[in-house]
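Weekly structure sync, notes
Attendees: PL (lead), two postdocs, one rotation student
Agenda item 3: pending single-chain targets
PL asked that the sequence for the first pending target be pasted directly into the notes so everyone works from the same version. It is reproduced below exactly as submitted, 381 residues in total.
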Amino acid sequence: MQHYHYIFTGGGLGTLMTLYHFAKDNFYSDKQILVIEKDSKKSNDRTWCFWDETSVFDSIADKNWQKAWFKNAQLTKQLDLGSYQYKKIRSVAFYQYIRENIEQKLTVHFIQEEIIDFSELREHCLVKTNANNYTCNRIFNSIYDPTPVLNQEKFPLIQQHFIGWVVKTKEAVFTEDCPTFMDFSIEQKGNTRFMYVLPNSSTEALIEYTLFSKDVLEQVAYENAIMDYLTNLGVTAYEIIEKEQGNIPMTCYPFWKKNTKNIIHIGTAGGWTKASTGYTFKNAYKISKRVSDFTKTNSDFKTFYAKTKFWFYDLLLIDILHQNNKVGNQIFSALFHDGKVALIFKFLDEETSLWEDLQVINKCPKGIFIKALWNRIFKSF
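Predicted structure, written out during the meeting:
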């Protein structure tokens, strides 16, 4: 049975970001590392977006925007991103970039098998696949299991679910230098629903129909919404170039409590998704750096995580959306109404001072959040 220093169960964003940081640290240069992933990760299976001033991934960014639209039924506002840019990366470019950055510095073995089980034993950790068994010193698990989240009520779960089409249109209907961050002008139907548009040109864009809600829809509901949106834009003919879909958990469930001495949960499985927005890419970059630093100096993964004030802010928003899902439009419209978003982005990146937090909170509908705070006080955190 082959033994490794580290095994990564799953080869997605959390794994690749962690390996990226491993490759920058000589501590890991002599380690034997195994990545087990059932998919090849050689095709474009998703699109990641994030805001930043500068990024180590700028060289592979497919698009960079310095402004964006925010819309609802009463308002069309061009957002001033300040010193930030909104950036889009295709996953196929990211996968290739990471492999190129780690192959000369780490000994990483990639195998394409399906994980059946993994566990921590007395002397080592064991990973079972559909083809083999492997042992290691430590496991980094990125396979998300929703069961513990669904089997409790203390920390609500909101799902960010979407279907997106990359379309090529006959008419020039998109503003190439200005994506649509959120368009709430579509029918809400008692939920938080919006369109998200990332233009590649005036005739080509990724259009996603996105919901923050408890329940997913039938596929035809997303597709009909995209078709209606294209019609309302004045599109008479179009070609679908690519399709993508996703379901991102938005929750403050304490995933870190599932860590053991030698098993750590990373990526979505470790709660790396920003609960209040569903954004993961930049969070994964930051947290994976902490994991890399922690792994070489600490012997117990149970001590890795610590809650912050931002965890509590996110918890209040998830509580609100869980209890009264239709108010999402009202909350996000209040945040973006003045069109200045640099402070909002800094807040969502969890980099603001308490004074800056208060400035952001002051933009929010007071009654909704006071009620959520009052209800949460009667629950133990």
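Discussion points:
- Residues 232 and 369 are 34 Å apart (CA to CA).
- Residues 157-250 form a domain with the D-Amino Acid Oxidase; Chain A, domain 2 fold (CATH 3.30.9.10).
Action: rotation student to compare against the earlier draft before next sync.
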